[in-house]
Structure formats: C-alpha cells, structure tokens
Amino acid sequence: MPICLLAIMVIRQSFQDNREIKYILKNGVPFDATVSSIRQTDTEINGHPEVFIGLTIPREHAEPYRTIIKTVIYMVNIPQYQPGRKVKVKVLETNGRIKVALEGAQIF
Question: Is beta strand 86-94 parallel, antiparallel or unpaired with respect to 48-59?
C-alpha cells in the first residue's frame, strides 16, 4: 500500500508542475536567457532525456538572475541548449518569487 500512495503523490506532483509551467508560459514575460550549463539526469520520459539547464537571465537595473530548471527536451534539440546559446524563456514574478519556464521544452 505505501508504494501505491507514493506513486499517486509523484503523479500528482507531476501534474501540478505541468500546470505551473503552462501558467508561466501563458502569463510570463518573455526574455532571452543564456545557457550556462546542461546536465542530463538519469531519467528519460517517452525516450526523451530529462536535463538540468542552468540559465542566466539579464534584468534591467539589477544583477542577472541565475537559475537551474529541470525539463525534458528532444534528443535532437540538445545542441540548441549548449552553454553560451541563447534560449527563449518566460519569467513570472509572484509573491516575491521568480519562476522561469523554458519555451519549446516538452510538457508531458
């Protein structure tokens, strides 16, 4: 029984994460971010690698915002996310927290 409960909790968290990403993509402000790092996790979803992507987002009149996001990308798109490359992101600031979503990443 505990394994079943854990599976339900993981699936529920995944749906919440996907809803939040969709909300950020719909309501966030577009920015061009620079990829600072990319590292594959040990997870694949539908054959696509899950990765950690380090991003630097320039801000007017403030220090650049640096973050790491976890997302799934198509294997053929990995060259687009190499350090130094520019990528499109959406940024949403709510309740003093900054949330970032990568445009073009897969949402499963």
Answer: unpaired
pLDDT in tens, 27-36: 999 999 999 9
CATH architecture classification, 2-102 = Beta Barrel (2.40)
Percentages (nearest 5) of helix, strand, coil residues in the chain: 30, 50, 20
Question: Long-range contacts for 76-82 (Cβ within 8 Å, ≥24 apart)?
Answer: 77/104, 78/38, 78/49, 78/51, 81/35, 81/38, 81/51, 81/53, 82/35, 82/38
Q: Where do we find the tokens 């694949």?
A: 44
What tokens appear for 88 in the block?
Answer: 């499109």
* Model pLDDT for residues 2-19, shown as the tens digit of each residue: 444 333 333 333 445 788
Amino acid at 82: Q
Q: What is the mean pLDDT of residues 42-62?
A: 90
